[in-house]
């Protein structure tokens, strides 16, 4: 599903994810950095954002859609990043 920054379901999912991280002791700005990206179903934007995220060399990436996962896998083919999928 192409999520947008104003989508209430997407906002709720991001908030739930951040709340769970907080409950587990992960505090944004202290011991975790969260970069959220919204491509809204645009394939070119998805690929661009995947490359940008991988260039940040994160320990893990959470992808919420199949197109995001595919773009991230293409960019990380020869790297060791961990990519997780969300619902």
Question: Keywords, please?
Answer:
single chain, 87 residues, mainly alpha, two-stranded parallel ribbon, 2 strands, 45% helix, globular
Could you describe the 3D structure shown?
By secondary structure, the protein is mostly helical. It is 45% helix and 9% strand. The protein contains 3 helices and 2 strands, in the order ααβαβ. It has helices spanning 8-23, 43-55, 66-75, and strands at 60-63, 82-85. Helix 2 packs across helix 3. The protein is globular, with a radius of gyration of 13 Å. The chain starts with 7 loop residues before the first helix and ends with a strand. The relative contact order is 0.16.
Short description:
This protein is mainly alpha-helical and 87 residues long.
Biggest pleated sheet: 2 strands, parallel
- Average of pLDDT: 84
Q: Using only CA atoms, what is the Rg? A: 13 Å
End-to-end distance: 10 Å
Number of H/I helices: 3
- Outline type: globular
Structural class call reads mainly alpha
Lateral arrangement of strands in the main beta sheet: 1-2
Helix content: 40-55%
Number of strands: 2
What portion of the residues fall into strands of 2 or more residues? 5-15%
Give the number of domains.
1
Low-confidence stretches: none
The ordered string of helix (H) and strand (E) elements is HHEHE
Write the layout of secondary structure elements.
Layout: H1 8-23, H2 43-55, E1 60-63, H3 66-75, E2 82-85
Parallel strand pairs: 1-2
Helix pairs in contact: 2-3
């Amino acid at each position: 599903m192409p999520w947008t920054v104003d989508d209430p379901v997407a906002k709720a999912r991001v908030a739930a994810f951040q709340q769970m991280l907080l409950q587990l002791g992960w505090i944004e700005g202290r011991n975790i950095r969260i970069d959220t990206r919204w491509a809204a179903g645009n394939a070119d934007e998805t690929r661009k954002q995947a490359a940008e995220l991988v260039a940040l060399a994160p320990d893990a990436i959470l992808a919420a859609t199949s197109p995001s996962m595919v773009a991230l896998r293409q960019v990380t083919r020869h790297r060791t990043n961990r990519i997780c999928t969300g619902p």
